[in-house]
Each structure stands twice: as C-alpha cells, then as structure tokens.
C-alpha cells in the first residue's frame, strides 16, 4: 500500500515511487530532484510540524505537507550504514 | 571572437557563483536590472592578453524549465545574447543535484565549461573526484575552483577562452535518448521543425521539440506567434501526453526528467566520485547546527533573539554615520544660508533641496547597515531557516515564510524603515506573496512615525506610555496580516506558491560578498535620492511656500516688528516678542500657501476624524517623509522650528489645545500608522512591483487609515466621553 511523504516520521527513510501532481508543482519537484527512485530521509519538521525538511542527493530541501501529499513513497528499513 | 569574448557564469543558487564572479571581476562590475523584472543583471569586464572579456553573472537557477523569473532570464541571455561560453559552477559536494542544470546546457548545445567549486570542502569531506574521467564523459573541460579564496579562477578563465575558441561559436546540442515512448515523437517533431525553420534561428530544433513536450509556456507562446506549425506540434504533444497517461500513467515531462537524472547517475556510477569517509563521518556541520537552530523549542527562541539583535545593531550602529550625515547636511544648509542672500532662492536651496535630499540621504547609513545584516543572514543560510520556521504561520494570511524579513525590517519590532523592508522582498520568489508583502509591510511603525506617536502619547496617554507603544506595534501587525489576508482572497487571489526550497548548508559569508551586496543596494537607493526625490522635495517646498502672503499682511507683520523695536525694552524680551511675530507670520504664510489651502479644503472631511487644517498640512507633508509631520506641526502651531527629538513644548501645546481630545490623538495615531506610505516608499514599491500597485497602496492605505480614524474619533467622542 502506497504512503505519501507526509506520513514519514523524522529520521525515517523512503524511496519515491511516484509523483501525483501536475503543472507547476510537479515541475518544481522534479527540478529539485524529487523523481521516482530517489531516496529521501526526513531530517526535521518546522516548529509547527509543517513544512518538512528532507535530505536527498546530498542536499537539504524543505516543502509543505500539502506538497508532500503529492509524493508517494515506500518506506525503507533502516540499513544503519 | 578576435579581441572580445563573453563568458556567462551559471549555476544553482548556493553554488558559490556570485562569490566566484566577484573574485574574477573584482570591483569592475555593473549592476542593473533585466528589463521589466526585478532580477538583477550583473556584468563585469576583465582583460586577458589584450582581449576584453565580458563576464555575465546569470541568476542562480536549478533548471532551465522557466519555473521562475531567474530561469527565464538565464535562458533568454543564453539564447538571445549567445555568449561564447557558459561556465557552469557546480558544488563539488553535491554533484548529482547540480549536474541537472549542466545536462540542460548540453542539450541546448552551447559550449560549456564545468567548474567544480568548493573543492576545499569536498576534500574535507573526503570526496575525490576524477576530473579527467568526468570531462571525458561529459565532453566538456572541467576545472576545480575554490571561490572563497579565488583559487583556480585564472585557470577557469583561460580554459573557458581556449574552449570557446576551439568551438568557434558553434552550438552542438547533446541528443539524449528519452526512451521508446518519446524518441519517435521527438524525431517526428524535429523533422517538421527543421523543414519549416520553426524558431531555429533562436533554438536548436530538438530543444524546441523537448520544450513542447515539457509544455513550456514561454516557448509555446513564442511558437504560436511564429507560425502554423505550432498547432501541429501541439497536437502531436497532446497525442503523446494522452499515450503516456494511458500506458505509463505519467506525463512526458516526468519521463524527460527521469531520463536526465538517469544519465547523470550513469555517469556518476563510473567511479567519478570516491568517498574516502563513510556516511556517518560525513554527517556534516550543517545538520548538527540545524538540530539546534531549527529545534522545535530552541529554534523560535533563537530566531527572535537573532532578529532582535540584528534590529538593535542596525539602529545603534546606523545612528553613528547618520549623525555625521545630519551634521554634513546641517553644515551645507548653514553655508548656503550664509552664501546665498535671503529670499526665495535661499529658501529653495536650503529648505527645498538641502533639507529634502538631506532627509532622504539620512536613511542611507541605516539602509546600508540593514542590508549588511540581511546579506549576512542570507549568505550564511540562516534566512532560509527563518522562512522555514515561520511559513506555517504566515501562510494562514496568504503570505510566505520569506515575508517575515520585510515586515521586521519595515519596523515590525518598532522603528525600522519600509524602504529597505520593501527591498528585502526580493528574497520572495513568488510574485503573489511578494505583492501582498509589499502592500502591507508599510503599515509597520517605522522609525519616522515614532516621533509622532511619542508626541501624542506623551500628550494624552502619559500614564501608560509603554503599553500604548506596544499596542500600536501589535495593531500594526494585526492590520498587516488581516489586510494581506483580504487582498490575497480578493484582488491577488490564487493558490499559495509552492514552498519547495533548498535549505543551503551553513557557511561563513565572505566579507567581500556581503560588502558588495550592501554597496549595490545602497547605491541604487542613493541614485534614486538624486533624481526623483530631489524633484518631489522641490515640489513640496513650492507647495508650502507659494503663494506668499499678500503684501498688506507682510507689511502688517513688519509694522508689528517695528513697533516692538521702537518700544524700548530689554533685549531678551524684545527678541522673544520678535520670535513670536516670526512664528505667527510663519503660521499665516503656511495657511496661505497651496499646502495650507489643501489642508483647509480638506478640513470639512477631515473633521470627521477630528483633524483640523493644521493636522492636514502636517499629514500632507508626511507624505514626503513621516519625519516632516512633527516639524510641520511645529510651524502650524506657530512654534517655529521644532526638533522632532525634543517635542516637550509642542506636546504641552497640543495637550492644552481645546480642539484636541484623547480620541483625536488616538485617531491620528492610527491614521499615521496606516495612511499612504511616504513617497520614497511608494517609489520603492513601484520599482519592486509596478506604479499601478504603488498608487493603489497610496489610495487604499489612506482610505483604510481614514475609516479607522473616523470610527475611533466618532465612537470615542460620542459614546465614550
């Protein structure tokens, strides 16, 4: 069952399976490197729980919860590398 | 490319591009704006072996997909100005992310030099990059640089020029395969585009086809204007989109992005980057800092502290050079008074030009220090965290995380200035939220409004001054947020702009970068003071001077003076009487002038809020600069010149005046807080948005302020007293 990125907790890791958005948001997400197959890790949430900060491709990105809703993920077991 | 060449510097935001640009060009820079938008255009020239090399600093962008104005500008410069080479500056520690832009340059076909920047940091993190192999796979030269120290800049320029010469201005678009679903359609479109020469003088054919598949608004709009082929291409695209949606449940633009990242991964997988340390060891400084600075509890507390400190520093440090400037203009005024014989010319030069321009130039140190602080916070990466923490709150009111800064600078903690505040809206990438911020930030109690509040509070609410001042600030915030909510749900309606933003790693800003930033912004402000502001100063002076008192009245005052002189009294008493007469003449002259007549004309209306003609003149003067309000009160209450810093006598005079009540004072406080921004702010607003919006704010804010003032005065004087 697919989850959206919103459900991910701090320090959890996941792989993006698909992006369900159109137009501006989807273009922006892709330009910032959020494409299917990408691994992301939630590294924090703002004091009011929104927006969320992510780590991917060696950089840090923040987006709002309603934007995270467009990003479907599969959770990854913590591999403890 | 015989004895001149153009190099364009491109790269993601936070790649160190501007630092490198500063290192390469030194002080020889020109800063302007791209026509019609507020994106800054920076250029500089250097001489290399007798050759004049023009260096353009393109705005930072993540992609060439025309999401933001920056991306549009970068694209236009490349396509329309055709620089000889584009130097793509990438952060060596974030190669995967930053190569996405590089790939798009390769697809455009322009000669590219890749500059691996921040090599010092990469080495510290234990990254080894196989430069030769990367150059081979990308098919372009690769150099290593450290922008902060300028290391490698000479090699960069030389390699860039050599490569540009080698390519001889020829564009060689890279053809990436986009898989079995898109490739045939691309080929079909390319064939048609080439046959019709459809925009091929500007763009490579395959690139146009790609942009159509990506549904790029700008290219499609340009295509529509060019020819019939546009429709045919659009129908091919809609066929492909339908096909992709049905069979793959995705869209062509998503497929294109996938393949681009796929290409980057396939290149990087060939042992280009070697990690000499494990992931654990590399958990960097930024993440550790973030766990404190954006902590749920500590984060907001530290933020308030930082903002407050910044604010304090600005006004304590800024005050020193402000004093120097004040003395300078004071001295200029005295000198002019001494040199020019008394009369209209003297009055024009001293009261009109020197006082007017001086009043505005007085802000320069404040603006410079404020920008110094803002540049520091921006370059260090902290500003992005402020936006991150405040976004949730501001979004409720149709604003954006990045709106916080302009509000604070404008006086959100009491006593800022809306001019640098509005300039700080440049950090807002989204036009709608920026506009709402521009319109509401001037409500903040700026430093120039404070003397008015202090005067009136001292006169009528002396028992609880601090609470009153605090309530005024609170009221300003409430109004700013509510009005913003109002405009965002009516005239600038629209979905919130996505908040998808990079949190750049924390870095110590370079002194040079911060100083350059500050100087650029301050200089733009100074230039304005020399032109528009000078003109308006003269206009206001004229309005408050002409027409002069009719002859019979001036002779009347002259006669009074003569009478005082004739009666033998002590010199001190005589002087006092003479000053009294001068002040009454000043008051009469002011009432007789255009400004005075306007004040009188509006009196029937302004009486609704309890304002008489004297208040009206002061408010008209306040449009020039809010400092003028107190000074004009001084003249209008025939007190002669009143120093805004020392308002005791004026305060007593007003408190004793029977036409004033607590509610008049309260109405005036609220009106001054809300009504039209001073005209320097209006000019700034026009520059940051458009004259239409600036004029709208002038009218709307005045009406809003007046409605409040009337309500307070009427309710207060009819029901509460």
Describe the 3D structure:
The complex is a heterodimer of chains A (81) and B (721). With 81 residues, chain A is of the alpha+beta class. Chain A has one domain: Ferrous iron transport protein A (FeoA) (SH3 type barrels). Chain A has helices spanning 23-31, 65-68; strands at residues 3-4, 13-19, 39-45, 52-56, 59-63, 71-76. Chain A starts with a strand and ends in a 5-residue tail after the last strand. Chain B is of the alpha/beta class. Among the domains of chain B are: 4-167, Rossmann fold (3-Layer(aba) Sandwich), CATH 3.40.50.300; 179-282, Helix Hairpins, CATH 1.10.287; 551-587. Helix content of chain B is 66%, strand content 7%. In chain B, strands 2-3-4-1-5-6-8 form a seven-stranded mixed beta sheet, sandwiched between helices. The model of chain B has no long low-confidence stretch (mean pLDDT 85). The chains are: A alpha+beta (81), B alpha/beta (721). Chain A binds chain B through residues 18-19, 22, 24-33, 35-38, 43-51, 53, 55, 57-64, 67, 81, and chain B through 62-63, 65, 67, 93-97, 100, 214, 249-251, 253-254, 257-258, 261, 278-280, 286-287, 290-291, 294, 296-297, 299-300, 384, 388-389, 391-393, 395, 401, 498-505.
């Amino acid at each position: 069952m697919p989850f959206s990125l919103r459900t991910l907790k701090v320090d959890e890791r996941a792989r993006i399976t698909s992006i369900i958005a159109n137009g501006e948001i989807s273009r922006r997400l892709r330009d910032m490197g959020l494409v299917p197959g990408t691994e992301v890790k939630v590294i924090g949430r703002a004091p009011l729980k929104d927006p969320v900060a992510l780590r991917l491709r060696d950089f840090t990105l923040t987006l709002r919860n309603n934007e995270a809703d467009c990003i479907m993920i599969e959770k990854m077991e913590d591999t403890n590398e | 490319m015989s004895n001149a060449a153009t190099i364009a510097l491109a790269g993601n935001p936070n790649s160190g591009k501007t630092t490198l640009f500063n290192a390469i060009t030194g002080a020889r820079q020109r800063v302007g704006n791209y026509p019609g938008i507020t994106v800054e255009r920076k250029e500089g020239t250097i001489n290399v072996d007798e050759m004049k090399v023009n260096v353009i600093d393109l705005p930072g962008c993540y992609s060439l997909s025309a999401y933001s104005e920056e991306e549009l500008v970068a694209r236009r410069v490349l396509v329309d100005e055709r620089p000889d080479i584009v130097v793509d500056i990438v952060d060596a520690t974030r190669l995967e992310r930053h190569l996405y832009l590089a790939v798009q340059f390769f697809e455009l076909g322009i000669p590219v030099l890749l500059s691996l920047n921040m090599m010092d940091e990469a080495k510290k993190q234990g990254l080894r990059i196989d430069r030769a192999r990367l150059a081979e796979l990308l098919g372009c030269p690769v150099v290593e640089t450290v922008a902060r120290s300028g290391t490698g800049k000479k090699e960069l320029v030389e390699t860039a020029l050599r490569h540009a010469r080698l390519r001889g201005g020829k564009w060689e678009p890279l053809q990436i395969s986009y898989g079995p679903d898109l490739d045939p359609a691309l080929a079909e479109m390319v064939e048609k585009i080439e046959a019709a020469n459809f925009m091929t003088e500007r763009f490579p054919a395959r690139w146009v086809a790609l942009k159509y598949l990506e549904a790029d608004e700008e290219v499609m709009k340009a295509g529509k204007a060019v020819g019939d082929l546009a429709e045919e291409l659009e129908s091919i695209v809609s066929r492909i989109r339908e096909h992709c949606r049905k069979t793959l449940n995705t869209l062509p633009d998503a497929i294109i992005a996938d393949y681009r990242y796929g290409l980057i991964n396939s290149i990087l997988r060939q042992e280009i980057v070697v990690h000499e340390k494990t992931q654990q060891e590399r958990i960097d400084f930024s993440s550790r800092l973030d766990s404190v600075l954006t902590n749920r509890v500590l984060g907001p507390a530290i933020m308030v502290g930082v903002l407050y400190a910044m604010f304090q520093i600005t006004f304590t440090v800024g005050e020193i050079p402000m004093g120097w400037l004040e003395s300078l203009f004071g001295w200029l005024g005295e000198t002019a008074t001494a040199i020019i014989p008394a009369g209209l010319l003297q009055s024009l030069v001293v009261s009109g030009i020197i006082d007017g321009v001086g009043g505005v130039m007085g802000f320069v140190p404040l603006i410079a220090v404020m920008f110094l602080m803002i540049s520091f916070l921006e370059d260090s990466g902290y500003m992005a965290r402020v936006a991150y923490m405040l976004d949730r709150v501001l979004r409720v009111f149709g604003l954006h995380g990045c709106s916080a800064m302009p509000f604070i600078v404008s006086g959100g903690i009491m006593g800022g200035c809306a001019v640098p505040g509005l300039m700080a809206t440049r950090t807002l990438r989204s036009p709608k939220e920026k506009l709402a911020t521009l319109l509401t930030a001037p409500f903040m109690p700026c430093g120039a409004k404070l003397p008015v509040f202090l005067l009136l509070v001292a006169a009528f609410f002396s028992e609880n001054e601090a609470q009153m001042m605090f309530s005024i600030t609170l009221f300003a915030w409430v109004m700013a947020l509510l009005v913003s909510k109002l405009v965002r749900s009516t005239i600038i309606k629209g979905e919130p702009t996505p908040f998808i933003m990079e949190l750049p790693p924390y870095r110590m800003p370079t002194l040079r970068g911060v100083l350059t930033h500050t100087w650029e912004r301050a200089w733009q402000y100074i230039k304005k003071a020399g032109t528009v502001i000078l003109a308006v100063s003269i206009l206001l002076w004229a309005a408050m001077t002409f027409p002069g008192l009719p002859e019979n009245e001036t002779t009347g005052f002259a006669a009074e003076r003569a009478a005082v002189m004739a009666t033998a009294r002590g010199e001190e008493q005589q002087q006092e009487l003479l000053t009294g007469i001068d002040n009454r003449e000043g008051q009469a002259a002011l009432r007789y002038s255009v400004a005075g007549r306007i004040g009188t004309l509006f009196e029937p209306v302004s009486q609704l809020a309890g304002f008489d003609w004297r208040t009206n003149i002061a408010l008209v003067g306040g449009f020039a600069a809010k400092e003028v309000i107190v000074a004009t009160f001084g003249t209008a209450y025939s007190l002669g010149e009143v120093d805004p810093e020392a308002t005791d006598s004026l305060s007593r005079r007003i408190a004793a005046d029977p036409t004033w009540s607590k509610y008049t004072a309260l109405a005036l406080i609220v009106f001054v807080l809300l009504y039209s921004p001073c005209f320097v702010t209006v000019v700034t607003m026009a520059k940051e948005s458009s004259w239409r919006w600036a004029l709208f704010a002038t009218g709307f804010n005045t009406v809003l302020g007046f409605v409040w003032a009337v309500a307070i005065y009427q309710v207060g004087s009819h029901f509460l007293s």
